Amino acid sequence: xxxxxxxxxxxxxxxxxxxxxxxxxxxxxxxxxxxxxxxxxxxxxxxxxxxxxxxxxxxxxxxxxxxxxxxxxxxxxxxxxxxxxxxxxxxxxxxxxxxxxxxxxxxxxxxxxxxxxxxxxxxxxxxxxxxxxxxxxxxxxxxxxxxxxxxxxxxxxxxxxxxxxxxxxxxxxxxxxxxxxxxxxxxxxxxxxxxxxxxxxxxxxxxxxxxxxxxxxxxxxxxxxxxxxxxxxxxxxxxxxxxxxxxxxxxxxxxxxxxxxxxxxxxxxxxxxxxxxxxxxxxxxxxxxxxxxxxxxxxxxxxxxxxxxxxxxxxxxxxxxxxxxxxxxxxxxxxxxxxxxxxxxxxxxxxxxxxxxxxxxxxxxxxxxxxxxxxxxxxxxxxxxxxxxxxxxxxxxxxxxxxxxxxx
Length: 408
Ligand SMILES: *Cc1c(COP(=O)(O)O)cnc(C)c1O
What we know:
Blueprint lengths: L26 E5 L2 E4 L4 E4 L2 H4 L10 H11 L10 H14 L3 E5 L2 H18 L6 E5 L8 H6 L3 H4 L9 E4 L4 H8 L5 E7 L1 E2 L5 E2 L2 H14 L2 E5 L23 E4 L10 E5 L20 H16 L2 H19 L1 H6 L2 E7 L2 E6 L5 H8 L2 E2 L1 E3 L3 E4 L7 H21 L3
Parallel strand pairs: 3-15, 5-6, 5-7, 7-10
Antiparallel strand pairs: 1-2, 2-3, 4-12, 8-9, 11-12, 13-14, 14-17, 16-17
Helix pairs in contact: 2-9, 3-9, 10-13, 12-13
The protein binds pyridoxal-5'-phosphate.
């Protein structure tokens, strides 16, 4: 790339709004689990654009399919039938055991639709001020309604008044759920991530999921599980809640569903599938042919290439290697916890560790740090064990150096 086209990397862009703390890196292209920056430096990608690039970069089956779609139709609008919506919806229905799908373009939009479904469910039952149970440390997006459902004061600060109608409780605590909703006839839904992503890779326990499912049935509440980050095969099942053998009534999806093409979906079971009618909800880009093709091909390639099995196998390999290489730090308590399933892994340190983002990038590894002190790995589902070994070989020494150089 010549100097004229090389984008200059400055701390703050003069024209793009300053909404992200960015690393001083501009990426140019990728292949599989590797990406290169505009200066030709190589990085191993253990972030996948935050659980988005399911198939990595420049996938040999995905790219030709998308090129084919680009030459046919990119967008048409929902004034017309979009046959690809039917194809992708049928696949999602089969994989989830649920019944109907609404398509949108992002995670927050899928969650916004879920919140509207819950409210409509309530209004249909004569509940005029419906309330939804949400969780501490949850992340559901940055629209006004979804940031109100989010359990992170930093996301909410400066944007009040928040949307009302949310009751917040701690994770994995049935007594807290019962107590917070006791005698309240306005509760309509319980809404959470099966594994909290931004909150620090915090899983809901299988037993808790089963008990909440039972309570929702008893009380006629909707069980709504945000699978935007933990879904789409990341944990080794299509959807993370499937590890508990339950089924939600509403399931928002996005991130990994289109392997990088913006797409969101809310999948509904029988109790929620008929709540919206014409005029109740919609979005211009939702379900456009390009996004649908990306979803259909992502699912097809995941199945053909056994990527659920790969996520389980390589995830376990990474998990075991982290436990082995950091055994001393785990024993000393400097590494507080190693959590997650499949290729969704969190390593909680006993101190804020945002600096690891930079040091990993300097050593050719892209990761994430979330909730201040949790190193998060979300690699493409195509990662090999050899690449996982490379992640470990870069990451673990850097964690040791970081801990030694940054006492609590
Ligand atoms: C990323 C994320 C969202 C928001 O998705 P956007 O596409 O950024 O709007 C919502 N829920 C969860 C669990 C997420 O990880």
